[in-house]
């Protein structure tokens, strides 16, 4: 049984790129009688808004996508992510990081991680238990980072993942360094929540844009550490406009809402998505 999912963040209206991704996952499930799940990744209180969550459900229904089972809303399950973090902490795989963004930028002549953030120089990893306790007691806000070296030591072999049409690919999670798993301003990171939920919901085929392909290296590490099953992956190209530029949120004309208000039917929008280019 194939189980796929679409997992948008309610930070704006769905645009054609989202619709392409949703249809991709929906079709992969529906063409073999599998299940298609919907999840809202809304744990970032600084960016997500309830009105966008409602709009996502409405726009998907308008487009004709039906989903199975209950909608999962991540902000309603924070205790789940806390429990996963606690398990990692109990194995001494996390450490508190008190650095500000500016601290890290300053010390980062270093390379960047595959998701574009500066590679963490390891500053707070070197703090003693007493220093950590004192800073926490003083109320200094902190994130929680994965101790990458310790995490890698828990994994005996080079991890791989199964990519559709490509086969087995090797993972290099060390490129992410001591990645943040719980932010100062959000209870858990995207990487932790997405792998947790894919495991919990029994997703067997993770479909998403190629911009997230390298994150899979890190996701496989988290799955291995947490003893979660490894799904298969199918990363698809990203939609571009006529000039080959990637579609982004700022292109308001390309939102499903905008197209609908301009008088397009769901059939026309689906035809438009089938005809667009990806790279
Ligand atoms: Zn730090």
Instruction: List low-confidence stretches.
Output: none
Number of helices: 10
Mean pLDDT: 92
Order of helices and strands: EHEHEHEHHEHEEEHEHEHH
Give a structural overview.
The protein is α/β, with parallel strands linked by helices and 279 residues long. Helix content is 37%, strand content 15%. The protein is built from ten helices and ten strands. The longest helix is centred in the first third of the chain and has 15 residues, at 16-30. The chain starts with a strand and ends with a helix. The model has no long low-confidence stretch (mean pLDDT 92). Bound molecules: zinc ion. The site of zinc ion has 5 residues, from loops.
Name some characteristics of this structure.
279 residues; alpha/beta; 3-stranded parallel sheet; 3-stranded antiparallel sheet; 10 helices; 10 strands; 37% helix; globular; binds zinc ion
């Amino acid at each position: 049984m194939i189980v796929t999912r679409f997992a948008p963040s309610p930070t704006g209206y769905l645009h054609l790129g989202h619709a392409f991704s949703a249809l991709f996952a929906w079709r992969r499930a529906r063409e073999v009688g599998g299940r298609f799940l919907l999840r809202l990744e809304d744990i970032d209180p600084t960016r997500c808004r309830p009105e966008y969550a409602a709009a996502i459900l409405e726009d998907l229904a308008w487009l004709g996508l039906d989903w199975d089972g209950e909608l999962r809303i991540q902000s309603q399950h924070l205790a789940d992510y806390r429990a996963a973090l606690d398990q990692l902490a109990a194995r001494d795989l996390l450490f508190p990081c008190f650095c500000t963004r500016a601290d890290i930028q300053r010390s980062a002549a270093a390379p960047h991680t595959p998701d574009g953030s500066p590679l963490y120089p390891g500053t707070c990893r070197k703090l003693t238990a007493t220093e950590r306790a004192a800073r926490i007691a003083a109320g200094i806000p902190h994130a929680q980072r994965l101790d990458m070296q310790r995490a890698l030591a828990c994994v005996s072999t080079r991890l791989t993942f199964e990519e559709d049409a490509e086969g087995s690919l090797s993972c290099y999670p060390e490129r992410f360094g001591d990645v943040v798993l719980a932010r100062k301003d959000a209870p858990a990171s995207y990487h932790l929540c997405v792998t947790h939920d894919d495991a919990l919901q029994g997703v067997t085929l993770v479909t998403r844009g190629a911009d997230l392909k390298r994150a899979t290296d890190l996701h496989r590490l988290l799955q291995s550490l947490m003893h979660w099953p490894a799904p298969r992956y199918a990363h698809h190209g990203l939609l571009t406009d006529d000039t080959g530029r990637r579609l982004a949120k700022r292109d308001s004309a390309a939102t499903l809402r905008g197209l609908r208000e301009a008088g397009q039917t769901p059939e026309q929008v689906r035809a438009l998505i089938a005809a667009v280019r990806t790279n």
